[in-house]
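The following record pairs a protein chain with its ligand, iron/sulfur cluster.
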Amino acid sequence: MTAPLSPSQELTRRLRDGLDRICVVMRADQWAIAGAVGLNPTQTHVLTFITGRGEKGVRVGAIATQLGVAQPTATDSIASLVRKGFLTKAPDPEDTRAVTVRVTRVGRDIVRGIGLAITATERALETLSIREQTELLRLVIKTIRALQVAGAIAPQRMCVTCGYFRPNAHEDKRAPHHCAYVDAAFGAEGLRIDCDEHEALPEADREAVWISYMKAFSDSEEDARDVTR
Ligand code: SF4
């Protein structure tokens, strides 16, 4: 007989069920947006990710890792996007045996159009107050980081894992954080989940930066460490 769930496990299960319902709508959103420009959601993710890398170009392996898809899936999506004229391939200047992929002007226009589309999920999120959205952003970041720590997803380009991030560097409660890349203060609502300028923190500094960020929300350093356990 299966042991009954504890109250906290039941709460976790209800949250998972709720997120699952939201994911159903998000997947429908993704299909609708991708379908409108003749793509599928994976192709849309690949195109958006490569566009975010600007002129640098990206290797196929890095695309597959970052998006959490198998390399053959990434290869098929890239081949299709190249045929449509949205991407180009060129030898990697640092290793001529490797190939990098770049976005074309047409591909960039497509991504701009996708970014302008307002989804059902966004309309629902807009019903939350700014304060609620900011709190939800914090919780989403914490959950994504926990998934990263567990090795369940590839490292994401978030402020909390960025070498330019200086958490709680300022007294101003409306803008306590600092981005050393643009040398500017910003508030909790400005935390990025996917930033093009992200520079991964060295492994040795990750926990210290996380604890420094979480201190503002924790009663103790112990609480701040919770997610790294
Ligand atoms: S460079 Fe981007 S990810 Fe890094 S701290 Fe600045 S805004 Fe955040």
